[in-house]
Design goal:
Elements (H helix, E strand, L loop, with lengths): L1 H11 L6 H21 L2 E2 L14 H12 L11 E2 L20 E8 L5 E2 L3 E3 L4 E3 L4 E2 L2 E2 L21 E6 L6 H5 L3 H14 L10 E3 L7 E3 L11 H12 L32 H10 L8 H5 L1 H12 L10 E2 L6 E2 L4 E2 L7 E3 L7 E2 L11 H4 L8 H5 L5 E2 L21 H7 L5 H9 L2 H11 L3
Parallel strand pairs: 1-15
Antiparallel strand pairs: 2-8, 3-4, 3-7, 3-9, 5-6, 10-11, 12-15, 13-14, 16-17
Length: about 450
C-alpha cells in the first residue's frame, strides 16, 4: 500500500522524496496500519440480555424477537401436523433463542442392508400416509369442529424400531456460527484426523442451501448438521415443527384439514416475511456469556487446562473466528456484515459429526430438509447414522439435561457416557484425582 501512495505522490509533487512526499508516505503507512487493525478479529459481544449484537438497531431486534415469540394459530396456517406454536416454545432458556427441555421424536427402520429408512406413518384410518421424513409431530389440529371425524394424529408404527429423542438446541450466537467459513470446519476435521492418527475425524456434511438453489455448504445447524444456513434452518423448522409453509418450503407435509392457502406466509409491505424476521433475529443475537465470577475462580482455570490436557478440546474447540465482513456465504445468498465479520467466539464445539457411542441411529435425508434443491451423496448420509453434532458448550451451565437426548443429568454423567471417538478422553477423566475432576467440572459450570 505504501508503494501505491508513493506512486500517487510522484504525480502530485515535483520532488516525491521531499517533505510533501514524506507526509504522503506517512499517510500511506498510517492507512495501511489502520486497514490491518480493522481486519484484526475482535471479541463478539455476549450476554443473555436480549440486546442486539449490532446487526440491526435495538428497536428492530425487539420487533424481530416478537416474530420469534409469536404464538401461531390455525388461522395462520398452523399444522395440520405440528409440535409447537412458536419458535420460542422450543428455544427459550434463559431467553428467546436459548435451549429448552423440549424434545423432538424421530423414528425409522433399517433395510436388509442395515441402511436407515424413513418411516411411513398412516393417518386418518389409513386414508393418507406421512412419509419422506423421520420427524413425528406431537400434535395435530384435527379432529376439530370442522372435521370431527378426521383423526390425523401421528403414532409410531411397530415397524419403526429406530427411535430417538433430540433435545431442542440453543440458537443464541448462531449468526456467528453461520459466518464461520466452510474451510475452517473442514480444516478442523482434517487436523483432528492427523493429530489422532485417524481415531477422531469429525464428519463435515455438505448439504443444500435452500435459499440458494443448486448451492451446497457445510452443515452446522441441527443435531445432524442438516442445515448450513440460518434461513434454511428456520424455514425447515417452520414447516416441520409448526406446519407453516413458507417461501423456502412451500409444500405441506399433509393436506388433510388444511384450509389455509399455500404457502401460509406472504411478504408484507416491506417485502419481508415472518421467516425473514426470524432469520434476522437469530443472526442478531449475542453469543452466550460465561459466568465471569466462576470463570475467574482458580479451580475453573485449572479445569480449563485439564479440559485441554485430556483431549476434550479436540472436538469441543474453544475458539473460532468468523469470515471478514463483505464475504459472501450461503451460496452467495448472504454477505457477512460488519457486526458478524472477523469476530472471535468461544463456542467450545467443532460443529462436526462424531460417533461418541451415543448415536441415535437416525439419518436425516436431504429430501426432508431441502427437497428439489440438490442432494448429498447417500453414502455420506448413511455414515451419519450413529453420529451427532458435537454439542457446543457455551451456555451449558444453563442446561439441566445434557447430550443429544437429554438423558444425562450431570456433567460427570455426560463425560463418562462418551465412548467411541471420545473413549480416550472419557477414560482420562476417570483417572483424574478427585480434586482435578472437580476442577474440570467447575470449568464446565463457568461456560
Amino acid at each position: 500500500m505504501a508503494g501505491i501512495f508513493r506512486h500517487v505522490c510522484k504525480h502530485l509533487f515535483v520532488r516525491p522524496l521531499g517533505i510533501a512526499a514524506g507526509f504522503c508516505l506517512a499517510g500511506a503507512m498510517f492507512a495501511f496500519a489502520a486497514l490491518a487493525f480493522a481486519q484484526q478479529p475482535t471479541e463478539a459481544p455476549s450476554g443473555f440480555d436480549n440486546q442486539t449484537n449490532g446487526l440491526v438497531d435495538q428497536k428492530t431486534h425487539d420487533l424481530d424477537r416478537v416474530a420469534f415469540d409469536r404464538v401461531l394459530g390455525i388461522e395462520d396456517g398452523l399444522g395440520p401436523l405440528y409440535s409447537g406454536q412458536s419458535c420460542r416454545e422450543c428455544h427459550q432458556n434463559p431467553t428467546s433463542g436459548g435451549a429448552s427441555q423440549v424434545t423432538a421424536l424421530r423414528v425409522g427402520h433399517l433395510d436388509a442392508q442395515g441402511h436407515f429408512q424413513n418411516p411411513a406413518i398412516p393417518v386418518a384410518h389409513g386414508e393418507q400416509v406421512v412419509k419422506d421424513r423421520s420427524l413425528v409431530n406431537d400434535r395435530a389440529i384435527c379432529p376439530n369442529a370442522a372435521s370431527p371425524k378426521t383423526d390425523i394424529q401421528e403414532r409410531v408404527p411397530d415397524t419403526e424400531t429406530v427411535r430417538a429423542l433430540h433435545m431442542s438446541l440453543s440458537l443464541l450466537g448462531d449468526g456467528y456460527i453461520e459466518a464461520v467459513p466452510d474451510t475452517t470446519l473442514l480444516a478442523i476435521s482434517k487436523d483432528q484426523c492427523r493429530k489422532t492418527n485417524g481415531k477422531i475425524c469429525g464428519q463435515a456434511l455438505r448439504v443444500p442451501i435452500v435459499e440458494a438453489p443448486g448451492q451446497m455448504g457445510v452443515g452446522r445447524f441441527g443435531w445432524k448438521d442438516q442445515q448450513a444456513s440460518l434461513l434454511s434452518f428456520a424455514g425447515d423448522a417452520y414447516v416441520n415443527e409448526m406446519g407453516i409453509t413458507n417461501k423456502l418450503f412451500a409444500k405441506e407435509v399433509l393436506y388433510l384439514c388444511n384450509t389455509i392457502r399455500e404457502p401460509n406466509e406472504g411478504p408484507g409491505a416491506d417485502g419481508l416475511e415472518n421467516l425473514d424476521f426470524i432469520g434476522r433475529f437469530l443472526r442478531a443475537t449475542e453469543a452466550p456469556a460465561r459466568d465471569a465470577a466462576q470463570a475467574a475462580a482458580p479451580s475453573s482455570e485449572r479445569g480449563s487446562e485439564l479440559f485441554a490436557t485430556i483431549g476434550c478440546d479436540t472436538c469441543h474447540v474453544a475458539t473460532l473466528t468468523t469470515a471478514p465482513a463483505g464475504t459472501k456465504i450461503n451460496g452467495g445468498a448472504f454477505t457477512v456484515p460488519d457486526a458478524l465479520g472477523s469476530k472471535t467466539i468461544h463456542p467450545y464445539g467443532d460443529y462436526l459429526l462424531h460417533d461418541v457411542g451415543t448415536g441415535d441411529g437416525i439419518v436425516i435425508f436431504s429430501s426432508e430438509t431441502a427437497a428439489a434443491t440438490g442432494s448429498t451423496p447417500l453414502t455420506d448420509l448413511q455414515a451419519t447414522q450413529n453420529k451427532v453434532r458435537t454439542a457446543p458448550l457455551w451456555g451449558v451451565r444453563l442446561r439441566p439435561r445434557l447430550m443429544h437426548d437429554g438423558a444425562s443429568l450431570t456433567f460427570s454423567d455426560a463425560i463418562l457416557r462418551h465412548k467411541g471417538e471420545a473413549q480416550q478422553s472419557s477414560q482420562a477423566f476417570e483417572k483424574l484425582g478427585r480434586d482435578d475432576q472437580q476442577a474440570l467440572l467447575d470449568f464446565l459450570r463457568s461456560l
